[in-house]
Amino acid sequence: MTDFSSIAETALARIARFDTHVKAFALVEPEWVREEAWRQDKVRPKGPLAGLTLAVKDLLDLRGLPTGGGCRTAVVADAPAHADAAASLMGAGMLTLGKAHTVELAFGTWGINRATATPRNPWDAATVRVPGGSSSGSAVAVAAGLADAALGSDTGGSIRIPSALNNLVGLKPTSGRVPMGGCLPLCPELDTVGPMARTVERVARMLAVMRDPQAGPVKPGPKLARQAAFDADAALAASPRGLTLAVLPDRLLDGVDHAVGAAYLDALSRLEALGAKLVEAAPAIDPPACVEPSGLLMAGRAWRLWRKRIERFGSEMDAGVLGRLRGGEDIPDTELSRLIRVQAQEQARFYAWAQDYDAILTPTVPIPAPALADADEGRLPFSRFVRMANWLNLPALAVPCGADAGGLPLSLQILSTPWREAVLVTLGHAYQCATDWADRRPDLEGIVKAGLEGAAVPA
């Protein structure tokens, strides 16, 4: 029998010991956590998720707690209900521990937040490195073993980037697969909510609980399957044998870090050995070509959503985020309408090309986690391969696939066409079963020691 109260006390003790050093959580109220554990003890839910602990990105509501959105002044002072995705997971027996830090209003890929705190990537005890964003705290909480899993949001890679930099599995679902209720928006045409954990199996079981059974078909696009109920057991049990996978030609890997490229090629070989068929093919739309239009759409939408807040609270906001938001002011409505038309056209073209493949494989990010001191928020090094999933509305899975010479995590991205999350799970799970990258753990004691000796920690 699951003892939720004991689980809560163990988790709270671990957070108390380590979170001062990695700053994953924006808010943990022990009495609130104990109350949630007491409720679960009364209900005694069963199933593969029962008793697992959950960190929730501070973009999603938890009843009775503020939703900060990464801001100094909370966006929602007292949430009246749990976000839909969080409520589903709690109903399946997961114990929510609190709110994880995020880039302010989720608008950034480095994971930096000057308004509240920047979580520390735990994979280097000697150097403070960026966690990736915007679901920065969610990733660090799981990587540091402070939570078993997390909820994140992904508008331009914000689940997959921090998952890649923290040796996690992160799933960006098809838009409409997971309900968005109770999640602060950034760009409705690109926003998604999804799970983050150490294994594909856990992410798959979370997705199965969070799915929205009322979602309809994707439009436009030829021969697209309508949404079917996602069956985690079937997807995990299926074999990759016979699946046709598109892999990138060399020209699309130019400039990728050597260790990232080597890990990518090794992952391809592993999947081929598992029975998948690899076909070198340039996607109908190059992944980097999705970065600029998605960024313009994101900025234009975000400005319109948050300009009243900027007028009121701009002086206390993260300067980098504020600058990106204000960039959207110069994007006229006519340009946003044009971008949405182009998005629909490029989705249709990509879906037609992708009919010949079960999945597309890329590196998740082209470089390992840089040092925080070297971060240049004027650049978008992490967006090169991930933005296509948001722009083209593709499900995408980040899976650990290696480590560089310093032990920093490397990651494989698996994409497919809308509603085909099952294919991602089949491939990712088979790959994880054939490798041991998910078994690695960061040196938290080394980080604690460094902190006690006066080493720099994120502000």
Total helical elements: 14
Q: What string gives the helices and strands in order?
A: HEHEHEHEHEEHHEHEHHHEHEEHH
Which structural class matches the secondary elements? Answer: alpha/beta
For the biggest sheet, the summary is: 11 strands, mixed
Strand order of the largest sheet: 1-3-2-4-6-5-10-11-9-7-8
Structural description of this entry:
- It is a single chain.
- The chain has 459 residues and is of the alpha/beta class.
- The chain has a single domain (4-452), classed as Amidase signature (AS) enzymes, CATH 3.90.1300.
- The chain has helices spanning 4-22, 30-43, 84-91, 136-143, 160-165, 200-210, 232-237, 258-273, 291-313, 319-327, 333-354, 387-391, 421-433, 444-452; strands spanning 25-27, 53-57, 95-100, 149-153, 169-172, 193-197, 244-247, 277-280, 359-363, 396-403, 409-415.
Summary?
With 459 residues, the chain is of the alpha/beta class.
Key attributes of the depicted protein:
eleven-stranded mixed sheet, globular, Amidase signature (AS) enzymes, alpha/beta, single chain, 459 residues
